Amino acid sequence: MQQRDKIKPILFSIIKHSSPQELKEQIPKDIVAGVVVAVVALPLSIALGIASGVSPEQGLYTAIIAGFLIAFLGGSRVQISGPTAAFATIVAGIVATDGMEGLVAATIIAGIILILMGLFKMGAVIRYVPYTITTGFTAGIAVTLTIGQLKDLLGLTYPAGTATVETTEKLTALAANISTVNMQACLVGAICLVVLFLFPRLSSRIPSSPVALFVGIGLVHGLGLDVCTIGDLYVINAGLPEFQLPQLDIGLFRNQFANGVTIAILAAIESLLSCVVADSMISSHHRANTELCAQGIGNIASVLFGGIPATGAIARTAANVKAGGRTPISGMVHALVLALVLVFLMPYAALIPMPTIAAILLYVAYGMSGWRNFVHLCQTASKGAVATLLLTFALTIVFDLVVAIGVGMLITVVLFMKMVSEETEVKGWKYYCDENSEVTHLRELPKSVRVYEINGPMFFGMTERIADISVKEFTKYLIIRMRGVPSLDATGMNALENLYEYCKAHGVSLIFSHVNEQPLKTMRRAGFVELVGEEHFCSCIDEAIAHARLLLGEEPAKREAEKPKS
Predict the structure, then answer these.
(1) pLDDT at 2 over 70
(2) Do 57 and 49 meet the contact criterion of CB atoms below 8 Å apart?
(3) Other C-beta atoms within 10 Å of 294: how many?
(4) How far is residue 69's CA from residue 302's CA, in Å, rounded to a whole number?
(5) How far apart, in Å, are the Cα atoms of 88 and each of 55, 519, 530?
(6) Which residue of 1, 39, 97, 157 has the smallest Cβ count within 10 Å?
(7) Which has the minimum average pLDDT: 90-99, 366-375, 458-467?
(8) Exposed, middle or buried by CB within 10 Å (0-12, 13-18, 19+), for 384?
């Protein structure tokens, strides 16, 4: 369960409720954890900056600015934020078509949306995104990221002006230029991939990505291989990020609104999922609404200092927990360490081979793909769930995240309504005329009384079943038993009003039995209770039958009357 606290940074709460001795013991552990996470984040931030279509240092700007602010202001004890693979293809597309001005506008919109989501207590919305959809679009993002790295992994050369924004364009360019493959680049990429996948088996304490980074640099510069490096493609700028505000106008914000919504949705989902994973690792509880506000502030600040969108990074958060981090101090230290690297060591990033960057991103894509969960869902989930999973996966690759999530949610809602409507039933009691029937626990009814029982929620997906209720010529009272109806919406209410009109036209009076709290509130609000009559609402079926007998003129019960099954 998430805590319903005020929206305030969890760091202040930790300091307030911890003794000086506890802080004295924990802070050194957090500092060490922050340094460890910085080592993990350094190559990832550089690689993700390049994958996002911006310069390497802009990936570090993001990890520094957003990482520090979100840790300081956020609602999780151990969350580490920064550039993530989930954003890479989205950001690259925006930068390619609309430049950094478009990205700044889109990210500011996303930040405002995230802050509003936090202020309006929408942190629990993540629960309403089905697992099939998150699995589908995460796997789809992993595939698009993989496709985007094949060029550098294979050392391909594209003609100037080749369009490589959309996934289909990247595949077309790959196929058209496969003859330019550089075998030396393939060798470096392959060796780095082997290091990334096998080194964790040798040492669980040392991250594999920095090791792969040094291996790649050693291969290229030690053996003099003809492989493209970061320095061949980018001018590396050392120094702290500076505040910069591009020329923005209302038209630009209007054009970037859809991209801003995409970034906000993804940032919210990724960050809160990361918080949930972190909670399970340290047996804690995050403050979802505080985290959303912090994510919004961190993203706005990031792009204003030259960075790109950021969100919670599950792998870096897990590394923080394993290294002993237990307070937001570790996230802040990680950002400060990266700032020192940016100032003093950034020029050496020019030595990093592009196949090594591609290998690191392929390793990240493999980790985020969740292919085992994907396969397991395909094998065990219902046909509707599998269809949603595969469609979300395909739409993420072919179109974009908003389309994928929108269509996936629409299909999920339709399937859910279908499932619930199938669970809802309206059935009339059966009559047994044989007095010697072996059927037990039956109730005697006057012939002019008819009983229908409704089970399941009454909403717009099943209201046509109410129309199936019918009365006989001799029916005077119709009892509607609603003990199995947990909820009633406006369309269901309209169906009951139509039933009332139908009964009134046939000279039949309605009696309701055991109406639950929510349906009764809806009926009162609609004036239906007053229309039918308060006295016609009974607490149980026996009371309803007795009330019908009383209305029939207190006629004595006839034992020979038909017996309905209860």
Answers:
(1) no
(2) yes
(3) 31
(4) 9
(5) 13, 48, 59
(6) 1
(7) 458-467
(8) middle
